[in-house]
C-alpha cells in the first residue's frame, strides 16, 4: 500500500460489523493444507486479549553464520534478512523515512518495503535508487493491490489484463534484472465475503493471485519473488474459508505474516514475540501461525511487525522489555528468514509503533538491530 495505507486495526473493527462471528475451523488436516489468515490487530477493545500462545516445536535455535548470501529466491544461506517499512500514515516520502529509520536503528535495511495499488507503476525511480544506493544495497519488497477498485473474481477472469501487462512491461523495461519481493494484495482476510456471488470470496482471492502471477510470468517477468502476506487475527484463522485463501505452493515463494503486539500490560494482543508469531484462541484447531507456516516448507517472512507503545500511561520500560527478548525468541524459530519492521508515529487508531517512541524503546531496539544474526550479503 501507499503511505496512506489502510490499517489492519480499523479494518478489523469494520469487518467485525459485517461478518458474523465464525465457528471453529475445519478439521486439522484441512487447516494444514493451505496458508492461514494472519496477523496484526492492535485495536484496543474494552476487554483484554483472550488469545494464548501455542507452543512451537523444540529445535536448535539459529546461530549467527558468516559469509551469508541469498539464493535465486532471495533466501539467505544463513542468518536473517533485516528490513523496514517506514513512514506509514505520514506524508514523509518512503525513501526519506527509511533513511531516517536506518540512522536511528543503526543498521541499513536489507529489505525496503513499499506499497502500491491499481495502475501505479513500480518499482519507481526513487525505489530503484534506494535498491542501488552505493554502499547500501537493498532488496525491494512491494505490495500491489492489482484488484484496486474492482473485484478479485473479475481480475481472475481477465478484466485487469491491461493493468497486469502494463506493469509487466514496466518491470522488464526499468528493473528487469535484480530480484525483488512482491505480495499480490497482502492482508486479504478483512475483505473476504462469504457470498458466492460477490466475486470476493477466499477462492476468488486465490484465483486472482494465481492468475496475476502466472500472467506476469507469461509476460516474461522473471525477477519477482512472490510472497503471501497474511494477517494474524484469531477469528479469521478459525474461519471456515481460511484454507481457501492460499494460491498454491507452485506460485508462492515465501509465506509471510503482518503481526503486532501491544506493550500495554493486559492490553489487547499484549505479549512477546513468540506470542506475536504463534497466538491462538486455544479453543480452535488452529495451532498458531508459525506452526502452520512450517507445514508449507516455504521460507518465512515477518513482513510487518512492531510493538505498539502503551496507549494509557505505563512504564516506558514495558516496550523495551518486549524488545529485549525478540532476538532470542526469533532464533528459536529458525524457519524465519526475514524480519521487516513497520514504523509510524500514529496509525489510524492513533497508536505509536515507532522504534523511538521512548528513549528506552530506541536503546532496546538498537540492540536488536546490532545482532549479527542480521548480517547477510545480498550480493549488490
Structural account:
The protein has 380 residues and is α/β, with parallel strands linked by helices. It has a single domain (8-54, 65-374), classed as Glycosidases (TIM Barrel), CATH 3.20.20.80. It is built from twelve helices and ten strands. Mean pLDDT is 88; it is low at 1-48.
Topology:
Blueprint: H1 8-18, H2 28-31, E1 52-53, E2 81-86, H3 94-105, E3 111-117, H4 125-131, E4 139-145, H5 152-156, H6 161-174, E5 180-184, H7 202-218, E6 224-230, H8 234-237, E7 254-262, H9 273-278, E8 279-280, H10 289-294, E9 300-308, H11 317-331, E10 336-343, H12 359-369
Parallel strand pairs: 2-3, 2-10, 3-4, 4-5, 5-6, 6-7, 7-9, 9-10
Antiparallel strand pairs: 1-8
Helix pairs in contact: 6-7, 11-12
Features:
globular, TIM Barrel, two-stranded antiparallel ribbon, single chain, about 30% helix, about 375 residues, about 15% strand, disordered N terminus, 8-stranded parallel beta barrel, GH, alpha/beta, signal, GH26 domain-containing protein
Summarize the entry for a quick read.
By secondary structure, this protein is an alpha/beta fold.
Amino acid at each position: 500500500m501507499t503511505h496512506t495505507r489502510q490499517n489492519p486495526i480499523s479494518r478489523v473493527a469494520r469487518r467485525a460489523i459485517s461478518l458474523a462471528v465464525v465457528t471453529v475451523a475445519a478439521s486439522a488436516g484441512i487447516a494444514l493444507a493451505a496458508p492461514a489468515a494472519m496477523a496484526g490487530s492492535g485495536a484496543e477493545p474494552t476487554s483484554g486479549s483472550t488469545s494464548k500462545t501455542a507452543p512451537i516445536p523444540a529445535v536448535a535455535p539459529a546461530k549467527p553464520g558468516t559469509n551469508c548470501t541469498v539464493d535465486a529466491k532471495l533466501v539467505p544461506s544463513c542468518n536473517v534478512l533485516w528490513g523496514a517499512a517506514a513512514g506509514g500514515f505520514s506524508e514523509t516520502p518512503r525513501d526519506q523515512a527509511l533513511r531516517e529509520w536506518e540512522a536511528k536503528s543503526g543498521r541499513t535495511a536489507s529489505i525496503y518495503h513499499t506499497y502500491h495499488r491499481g495502475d501505479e507503476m513500480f518499482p519507481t525511480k526513487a525505489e530503484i535508487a534506494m535498491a542501488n544506493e552505493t554502499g547500501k544495497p537493498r532488496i525491494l519488497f512491494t505490495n500491489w493491490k492489482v484488484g484496486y477498485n474492482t473485484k478479485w473474481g473479475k481480475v481472475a477472469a481477465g478484466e485487469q489484463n491491461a493493468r497486469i501487462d502494463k506493469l509487466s512491461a514496466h518491470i522488464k523495461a526499468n528493473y528487469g534484472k535484480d530480484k525483488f519481493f512482491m505480495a499480490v494484495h497482502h492482508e486479504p482476510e478483512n475483505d473476504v465475503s462469504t457470498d458466492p456471488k460477490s466475486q470476493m470470496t477466499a477462492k476468488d482471492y486465490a484465483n486472482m493471485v494465481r492468475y496475476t502471477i502466472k500472467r506476469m510470468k507469461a509476460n516474461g517477468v522473471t525477477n519477482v519473488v512472490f510472497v503471501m502476506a497474511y494477517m494474524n487475527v484469531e477469528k479469521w484463522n478459525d474461519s471456515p474459508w481460511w484454507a481457501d485463501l492460499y494460491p498454491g505452493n507452485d506460485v508462492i515463494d515465501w509465506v509471510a505474516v503482518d503481526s503486532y503486539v501491544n506493550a500495554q500490560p493486559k492490553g489487547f494482543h499484549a505479549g512477546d514475540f513468540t506470542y506475536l508469531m504463534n497466538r491462538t484462541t486455544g479453543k480452535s484447531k488452529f495451532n498458531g501461525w508459525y506452526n502452520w507456516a512450517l507445514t508449507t516448507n516455504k521460507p518465512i517472512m515477518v513482513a510487518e511487525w512492531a510493538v505498539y507503545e502503551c496507549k494509557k500511561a505505563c512504564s516506558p520500560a514495558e516496550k523495551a522489555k518486549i524488545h529485549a527478548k525478540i532476538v532470542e525468541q526469533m532464533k528459536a524459530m529458525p524457519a524465519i528468514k526475514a524480519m521487516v519492521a513497520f514504523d509510524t508515529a500514529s496509525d489510524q487508531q492513533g497508536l505509536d509503533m515507532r522504534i523511538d517512541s521512548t528513549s528506552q524503546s530506541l536503546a532496546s531496539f538498537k540492540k536488536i538491530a546490532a545482532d549479527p544474526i542480521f548480517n547477510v550479503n545480498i550480493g549488490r
